[in-house]
Design a protein that fits this description.
- The chain has 376 residues and is an alpha/beta fold.
- It has three domains: 62 residues, Orthogonal Bundle (DNA polymerase, domain 1); 198 residues, Rossmann fold, CATH 3.40.50; 55 residues, Arc Repressor Mutant, subunit A (Orthogonal Bundle).
- Strands 1-2-6-5-4-3-7-8-9 form a nine-stranded mixed sheet, sandwiched between helices. A three-stranded antiparallel sheet has the order 10-12-11.
- A hairpin with a 5-residue loop joins β11 and β12.
- The longest helix is centred in the middle third of the chain and has 16 residues.
């Protein structure tokens, strides 16, 4: 008898079933046509023909009602304002879909849809004032460039990074190693609510799931997977941020480490990462230069010249906001962000994001005085 679950419910149930990892879940979906309901409709023999699926997993799927109370979960989600997004939903982080073991779905609070590029800032829970100030400054400067800053809501560096973004009016996302209803550490309740209001809270774990060693490692792979780059601000050699750094390397993400004092263990992990090949980061410009360099290695069409009316052509790769900003540079203008806000009528955050993307697309360049000019 075919399952009566909706597609969204089937995703929710599969995601919550015990002892079935994301690699196996993704393989099941791929083998059975992508519709999660087909997993429940398939017989045990068909399920066990999929690599990694044995009698235990097939039995868990067949008896899923014994393992997961769908009605209770949906009720708790509705009460808490939680949605469940899958890889098919537009709000699912684009880069996260590309890793080897993406979650088939994420619990989300907050409305941010990950439209802007993301950068992770991670580090130790036991940190120095220098580390906290650095994380806060990097968070603010990255958000001013239009990036969404991703971290884990933990004490120390994570908290400072989130706070720096929010103080600058930017977007930030927190990925939890628990169910989305559990706030840890508890003193971050106010921060949790601010992130929910101005960004997004994410978790792949069912509501009520307590943290364990495995759940934090799974959280770290999502933090790295969402992002173009990972910045480690402070970490000892065995810190959780080093796990995030390892995932960044495995996932092909840019990895940066901030140097610290040689006599403090809180920076020993960063120094090890730098010795092992991570890029030393002293400011946001180091990250922007690396992103611009990599983008320059990719083949791109030759930019077209302005037409007879002076309008810039060849704009198919630009958003309407980016086009409006670029048009202000026609005729050789040298402009700062405030002037562009006045000329375009766009919000300051949208202008900052547009400038960042135009830099990466090699349409404009930042001058030493902080103003911008078009690249001929």
């Amino acid at each position: 008898m075919p399952t009566e679950l909706t597609e969204q419910q089937a995703f929710l149930v599969l995601n919550a079933l015990p002892n079935i990892g994301p690699i196996t879940l993704n393989r099941l979906l791929a083998e059975l046509g992508g519709d999660p309901r087909a997993v429940f409709d398939a017989g045990a023999r068909r399920l066990e023909s999929v690599k990694g699926v044995g009698p235990v997993i097939a039995g868990t799927i067949a008896t899923w009602r014994e393992h997961f109370d769908l009605g209770r979960e949906e009720e708790r989600m509705a009460k808490s304002g939680v949605t469940f997004i899958t890889t098919r939903d537009p709000g699912y982080p684009r880069l996260l879909k590309e890793i080897n073991d993406p979650p088939i779905g994420l619990y989300r609070k907050g409305s941010y849809d990950f439209a802007a590029p993301c950068v992770a800032i991670v580090g130790s829970r036991r940190t120095t004032l220098y580390g906290q100030a650095t994380a806060r400054k990097l968070g603010a400067e990255l958000s001013a460039r239009g990036f969404c800053v991703v971290s884990g809501l933990a004490r120390g560096i994570d908290t400072a990074a989130h706070e720096g973004v929010l103080e600058a009016g930017g977007k930030t996302a927190a990925v939890l190693g628990t169910g989305i209803d559990l706030i840890y550490p508890p003193e971050n309740l106010a921060l949790y609510r601010r992130i929910e209001e101005h960004g997004a809270i994410l978790s792949e774990f069912p509501i009520g799931r307590r943290a364990d060693k495995q759940s934090f490692a799974m959280r770290n792979r999502i933090v790295a997977g969402c992002c173009e780059a990972v910045i480690v601000v402070e970490s000892d050699v065995s810190g959780g941020a080093m796990i995030t750094a390892r995932f960044a390397g495995e996932q092909g993400r840019l990895l940066f480490a901030v140097p610290g004092r040689i006599d403090q263990s809180t920076s020993a992990g960063c120094h090890q990462l730098i010795r092992d090949g991570a890029t030393l980061l002293t400011g946001v410009e180091d990250l922007m230069s690396e992103l611009s360099y990599l983008d320059g290695l990719r083949p791109a069409p030759i930019p077209e010249k302005a037409d007879a009316n002076g309008e810039v052509t060849g704009l198919a790769d630009l958003t309407p906001g980016e086009r409006a900003i670029l048009a202000c540079f026609a005729g050789g203008g040298i402009l700062g962000p405030d002037q562009l806000v006045a000329q375009t009528g766009l919000a300051a955050a949208e202008v900052s994001a547009g400038l960042m993307m135009l830099e990466l697309k090699h349409r404009i360049a930042r001058r030493a005085d902080g103003a911008f000019e078009a690249i001929e």
